[in-house]
């Protein structure tokens, strides 16, 4: 086993050997979330897991996304929207991530190339997602203070 390179430095880990680990973990994690969302009954969560809500009594920007994903998996789209409308784009992203690692390498290379060529558009889409999340959070807080029941509150 080689302990030092020719210049005396520690051997460098091949980039190709470590690169696939992160996408694989993300892919398997997303797949696990989706599979669990089908297996867990739609009314399973009786108490909030949100630390922000527990500490402040207010929903956080992401409150309801887990429940929204659960409702989407069970075909309850109106309930999913009422828990958090941003559950829909998150669900689509989970689907993409789930299957990314399982598509042929040639297609993955094309997807990677496309995403690299469109970095600005990807950054803009990410910023738009965050802006929508914050806007919906603001609307939710205003509606909650007025007693409106458009959004289902995380318990």
Which secondary structure elements does this structure contain, and how are they paired or packed?
Elements: H1 15-18, H2 21-39, H3 51-56, H4 65-73, H5 77-83, H6 87-100, H7 105-117, H8 119-145
Helix pairs in contact: 2-4, 2-6, 4-5, 4-6
What does this structure look like?
With 155 residues, the chain is mainly alpha-helical. It contains eight helices and no strands. The longest helix is centred in the last third of the chain and has 27 residues, at 119-145. The mean pLDDT is 84.
Concise overview:
With 155 residues, the protein is mainly α. 64% of the residues lie in helices and 0% in strands.
The coarse silhouette is elongated
Stretches where pLDDT is under 50 for at least 5 consecutive residues are none
Oligomer: single chain
Question: What's the alpha carbon Rg, rounded to whole Å?
Answer: 21 Å
- Please, how many helices? 8
State the major sheet: none
Distance between the termini: 56 Å
Portion in strands: under 5%
Helix and strand content put the structural class at mainly alpha
Task: Give me the strand/helix succession.
Answer: HHHHHHHH
Q: Quick check: average pLDDT?
A: 84
- Strand segment tally: 0
Q: What is the helix content?
A: 55-70%
Key structural traits:
155 residues; mainly alpha; 8 helices; elongated
């Amino acid at each position: 086993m080689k302990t030092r390179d020719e210049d005396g430095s520690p051997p460098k880990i091949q980039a190709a050997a470590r690169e696939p680990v992160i996408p694989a973990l993300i892919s398997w994690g997303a797949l696990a979330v989706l599979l669990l969302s089908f297996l867990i009954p739609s009314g399973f969560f009786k108490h909030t897991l949100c630390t922000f809500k527990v500490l402040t009594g207010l929903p956080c920007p992401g409150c309801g996304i887990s429940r929204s994903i659960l409702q989407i998996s069970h075909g309850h789209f109106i309930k999913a929207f009422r828990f958090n409308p941003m559950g829909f784009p998150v669900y689509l992203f989970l689907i993409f991530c789930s299957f990314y690692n399982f598509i042929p390498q040639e297609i993955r290379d094309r997807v990677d190339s496309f995403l690299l060529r469109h970095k600005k558009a990807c950054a803009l889409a990410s910023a738009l997602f965050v802006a929508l999340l914050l806007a919906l959070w603001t609307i939710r807080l205003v509606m909650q203070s007025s007693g409106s029941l458009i959004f289902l509150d995380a318990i």
